[in-house]
Each structure stands twice: as C-alpha cells, then as structure tokens.
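Open question from group meeting: does this chain pack into something compact, or does most of it stay loose? Before anyone orders reagents, we agreed to write out a predicted structure and look at it together. Recording both the input and the output here so the notebook holds the full record.
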Amino acid sequence: MNDSYGHECGDKVLRMVAHTLIKTSRSFDTIGRWEGEEFIILVPNVDEKLLTRIAERYRALVAKSFISHAGATVAVTISIGAILAVPGEEIENLLTLVDKLLYLSKKQGRNCVTCVGD
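Structure tokens returned:
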C-alpha cells in the first residue's frame, strides 16, 4: 500500500480498517494494532463456530470498505488467523499458532479466514 499510494494513504487505510473492526465488534471485544499492518482482536465468550462467523464478518465488511485518496478509490482486504484460547495456554504459544494461521490465510490467496480445525 505505502509503495503504491504513499504513507499518508497507508495510514488512512489502517484507520479505515480499525474503524470497520471497531464498528463490527461487540462492546466487550478488545481490538488493538499489533505490528505494522496487523491487528489483534480478543473475542471472549465464543465457540469455534461463532469465532469463525465473527472473523468472516470482519473479513467481508473490510472488503466492502474503502477510502478516497488523490481522486482514487482505495480498497483492501484482510487475511485472518483465528484460534480459541485454552485455559492455561501460554500466550507465546497462542501468538505463534495464530501467526501461522494468518500466514496460511495469506498463502491461500488472501482475503480469507483460517481457524483451528479448518
């Protein structure tokens, strides 16, 4: 994004994605920017089926969102890796697993969701 449209546009896109995720989330979900262009979302009180539905909703709504920049319409898609945390699981293990799932989504063509059990 930054290479094609510049950093200002990249920043606008990150804000658009964040806004879409926030507006799509439940009041007790937690959203934060993780690294660069990555976000992490904590979605409590779900089973695997609901987690997958929520992740798919995030993906679809971001894909429908766009910004205007320098007379152009700029849209992006997101790739999602999602897991259910198991009580007592080390946070480092959870982050490693979700990162692997995220990259699996990217490898499968982007704009998709990969959950444990898929």
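Observations to bring back to the group:
The longest strand covers residues 30-35.
The chain has a mean pLDDT of 91.
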